[in-house]
Write a structure and sequence with these properties.
The protein is mainly β. The chain has two helices and nine strands. The strands form two sheets. Strands 5-6-3-8-9 form a five-stranded antiparallel β-sheet. Strands 1-2-7-4 form a four-stranded antiparallel β-sheet, with no helix packed on it. Keywords: Glycoprotein, Signal.
């Protein structure tokens, strides 16, 4: 997840010549100092709701000024945000809004100073369904790319997401 010159790689263990024996990164099954969870919370006739959770497992990093860039085809239809700030990133000449910059509110950002179960932030996005473009199949509900503080996060391709037996999410 981290580039060679990212702050997490440059952070000294405990300072020059010091070792306290304290772990720096909580050992997890995904072997990453962060977990970003995109969860479809609700799916009704006119809207769908996504919950985003970010958990810090790096005891040596303070992520209070975090940002999250997400690429998803339905960002034209964001109608409400909870505990998140948002700015569209329109990178194409035709005005396609499929990428967004998110960051948390000050009160909630401070939670990423801690690591482990107490070091997490949550936000929600409510998106309107557009009958012309909306299709909730083949991984469409999940982001195409995710970047945390500029670092590319590993995400499975849309076709790798599980499907229900009837092909709907």
């Amino acid at each position: 997840m981290h580039r060679e010159n990212s702050p997490a790689r440059q952070t000294p263990i405990d300072g020059p010549g010091k070792w306290t024996g304290q772990p720096l990164v909580q050992c997890t099954s995904h072997m990453c100092p962060l977990r970003i969870n995109w969860h479809v919370e609700d799916n009704n006739k006119d809207y769908w709701r996504v919950k985003i959770s970010i958990t810090n497992f790096n005891f040596n990093m303070n992520y209070t000024q975090w940002n999250l860039v997400v690429q998803h085809p339905n960002f034209d239809n964001i109608t409400q945000l909870v505990r998140l700030n948002y700015k569209p990133i329109i990178s194409y000449g035709g005005g396609i809004n499929d990428a967004a910059l998110f960051w948390g509110e000050k009160l909630h950002n401070d939670l990423l100073m801690d690591a482990g179960k107490h070091g997490n932030v949550r936000g929600e996005i409510l998106l309107r369904k557009d009958s012309q473009t909306y299709k909730f199949d083949k991984g469409w509900a999940f982001p195409r790319r995710v970047y945390f503080n500029g670092d590319n996060c590993v995400t499975p391709p849309p076709e790798a997401y599980p499907r229900l037996p009837n092909g709907k999410l």
